[in-house]
Fold this protein.
Amino acid sequence: MKLFVEKGIEGTTTREIAEAAKAGEGTMFRHYKSKEDLAWHLFDENLTRFVKELEDDIQRYSTTHQKLRAMVEKCYALFETDRILTSYLLLSEHTAARRMPTDYKTPISILLALVKQGQTQGELRPMDPHLAAALVFGAILRVTIFKIYGSIDRDLREMVDEVTDSCWKMIQV
Amino acid sequence: MKLFVEKGIEGTTTREIAEAAKAGEGTMFRHYKSKEDLAWHLFDENLTRFVKELEDDIQRYSTTHQKLRAMVEKCYALFETDRILTSYLLLSEHTAARRMPTDYKTPISILLALVKQGQTQGELRPMDPHLAAALVFGAILRVTIFKIYGSIDRDLREMVDEVTDSCWKMIQV
Amino acid sequence: MKLFVEKGIEGTTTREIAEAAKAGEGTMFRHYKSKEDLAWHLFDENLTRFVKELEDDIQRYSTTHQKLRAMVEKCYALFETDRILTSYLLLSEHTAARRMPTDYKTPISILLALVKQGQTQGELRPMDPHLAAALVFGAILRVTIFKIYGSIDRDLREMVDEVTDSCWKMIQV
Amino acid sequence: MKLFVEKGIEGTTTREIAEAAKAGEGTMFRHYKSKEDLAWHLFDENLTRFVKELEDDIQRYSTTHQKLRAMVEKCYALFETDRILTSYLLLSEHTAARRMPTDYKTPISILLALVKQGQTQGELRPMDPHLAAALVFGAILRVTIFKIYGSIDRDLREMVDEVTDSCWKMIQV
DNA sequence: TATGAATGAGAGTTCATTCAT
DNA sequence: GATGAATGAACTCTCATTCAT
């Protein structure tokens, strides 16, 4: 995954993968049909797990604000724990991500549901929920990109409240 | 550029480029040292022009809110006029983009300056200007991605005010 | 053998062989030194047995015509009983067949001896015995190829006499 | 073609082909889509030409015996002129040969037509024409195989009359 | 003795780049 | 200056063979 994030899937050779895995060149192909297949499994399994955890976290809270905060927290915790995984799941747009079926559950679909619910409950102002989700999701994730590029230094977990509140302002009633 | 956006730089062959340009296979190499060099020039020249126009647009206004609005308007006008160019300059993370020197003037650096100035003038609340820029830039751009994926239907130029105001809420005093 | 005939020896993978034999991938190598070795044993043992039976059959008759008939009958009986074996032993030109020592006893060498004897006994007209053997052997076997390709429908065992007589005409006094 | 005949199509590497052609490894792929495609074109073009010449030769004669003789002569002339081509077109059963459409004009289909015509004209005895063709074609070709293996020494062109007459006996009235 | 995961040499193929025309 | 045939390094992937279990 490290290689895929750093050099892209196309840009990573199967030989490099084998070396990184300290395995023979052909070994990968006993486990995955192709390089693309490996990339897809890496994406699919990790995203599924992340989404499940994300749902669990959100479920614990009742207000939309709290749920949003949980989401930001989850994303930034993942980032500080495993930057590569975050990049692979949330920041890169690779071939693997394009294989997703349209009904796939993703962080975006969860955020969208959250927004719709918040609007129904009158916590959020009426607006195109897709627009709201786009604004919030973009804001949250771009912070991680800035951190990667070094513009932001602080541990993102310290910034959860600040980011949550900023996003909240965009969508609250 | 269309090919680069659709299939990635690595994923585009020089033969495809030649075909699309209705030129011979070797012709490209008389104008650019390599495929990567072409990608870089395509990026560099267009970004420079866009940034210049963006600066001109912003300059016309005095308040930070107006300037921010001008920026959103410029980005969304570009998107609706030339999606491919927008993708190539603002949405894709390709090798070409990584060649940029650190002191390069980009939409982000312009936004950052705008935020700093707004904070000095007391229009924006005190906060890490990088964080503010990240939140705003992320919000603005993610809307275009949603539009590309079809979640948003409207012409983005109609949404300039709504997006500007939403972003403004995140950073205003 | 089925796989070897259908896809060639080179074209058959050891994994396919293992599957077909309902054995593990490595098991074959405990019995044969290599895939080629398996192919050779399969060829050698079956050809030896077939040649022995062929000799026995021929021995039962005294006239050359009868012996020739016995040979045709034997070949066509084998074909109708076991097409794959016939293909493997008589029709395919594979690596295994090329391993044969020059003094190897084959259907051809038997036919050649038969022709020589027939000429000595004055039943066959004087001619290069190799030419005679070639003509007869070619005629007999090509019928099976036509049958495989579907140009001939009848059971070859019904055609033994017609084929024998046709061949006989080529070589009789 | 030499390599294909000697080692089979599967058994010949593209590297060997390039070396034999004194060309780079990639050059072949500018002219043919794949190794199999090269094999097919080599087969198709040469067989088409040979069949055309064969038809021309046969056309010159009026009696079936003469036509048959022309066919034998043509095959053996090809053999003595270009053994490799003969092997590739007439003796090997390779993947390329299997690509042939069923309505393809081949030496066999020509021989079959010749037999049918001869039977209609009363020159040949009544029998399954496919059987007749198989017997004759097998006899003619097996002689070349014997020559390749060294059992027959003479120039096949000297043997045209003998082979023709032998075959004739099988099918004449 | 049988297994099947691991191996790595080598296969077919692609494609950025060169250069004679 | 433009071309496109030729190139060969490097790619993904296959598969006969090995060997620890």
